């Protein structure tokens, strides 16, 4: 049985709406970006660049300063690529409008409750990013106990870690 790959995708119209919302943590940046192409990519540069960028969606990119959610308006900055030393990669620079998810500590954001236990609420932000909302220590009447699955919850981001394969984000429920 062949293993199926799950590709994370975001609708560009939805991303355009998110950048207008103050608490979405999604930003649009027009940026220059460097890409290394294999020689087999040279047959169709535009689609090859899109394929490479699509593989990076949902992953943290230090050059972009956040998690890539989408892109538009790709422009090649040169008509030729460069080969460095004896590497087979062809290096090109592009410019595009990148939609970047940049959650930061202290930012207030909304999610949808996906899981719940007596000491933890799990939620999804923008239908793809998992956020853990643990019960604070020494709290008797925790608001997380009243939440139900598929309800919206507002929380403040308390911790982020992008070093793993998946982003790790925790928060504190706001009453």
Question: What does this molecule look like?
Answer:
By secondary structure, this protein is mainly beta. Helices cover 11% and strands 43% of the residues. The chain has a five-stranded antiparallel beta sheet with strand order 7-6-5-8-9, with no helix packed on it. It has a four-stranded antiparallel beta sheet with strand order 1-4-3-2. The protein is elongated, with a radius of gyration of 20 Å. It starts with 11 loop residues before the first helix and ends with a strand.
Summarize the structure.
This protein has 175 residues and is mainly beta.
Mean pLDDT: 87
- Please give the alpha-carbon distance between the first and last residues: 48 Å
Global morphology = elongated
Helical fraction equals 10-25%
DSSP summary, beta strand count = 9
Specify the structural class.
mainly beta
| Largest sheet properties | 5 strands, antiparallel
Give the number of helices. Answer: 2
Gyration radius from CA atoms, angstroms = 20 Å
Spatial sequence of strands, sheet with the most strands: 7-6-5-8-9
Oligomer: single chain
Portion of residues in beta strands equals 35-45%
- SSE succession: HEHEEEEEEEE
């Amino acid at each position: 049985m062949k293993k199926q790959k799950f590709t994370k995708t975001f609708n560009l119209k939805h991303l355009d709406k998110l950048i207008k919302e103050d608490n979405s943590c999604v930003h649009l940046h027009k940026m220059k970006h460097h890409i290394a192409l294999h020689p087999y990519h040279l047959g169709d540069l535009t689609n090859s660049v899109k394929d490479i960028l699509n593989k990076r969606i949902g992953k943290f990119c230090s050059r972009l300063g956040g998690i890539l959610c989408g892109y538009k308006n790709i422009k090649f900055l040169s008509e030729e690529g460069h080969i460095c030393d004896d590497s087979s990669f062809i290096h090109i620079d592009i410019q595009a409008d990148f939609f970047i998810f940049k959650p930061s500590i202290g930012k207030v954001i909304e999610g949808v409750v996906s899981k719940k236990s007596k000491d933890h609420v799990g939620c999804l932000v923008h239908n793809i990013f998992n956020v853990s909302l643990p019960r604070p220590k020494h709290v008797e009447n925790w608001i997380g106990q009243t939440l139900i699955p598929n309800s919206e919850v507002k929380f403040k981001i308390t911790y982020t870690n992008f070093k793993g394969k998946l982003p790790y984000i925790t928060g504190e429920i706001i009453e």
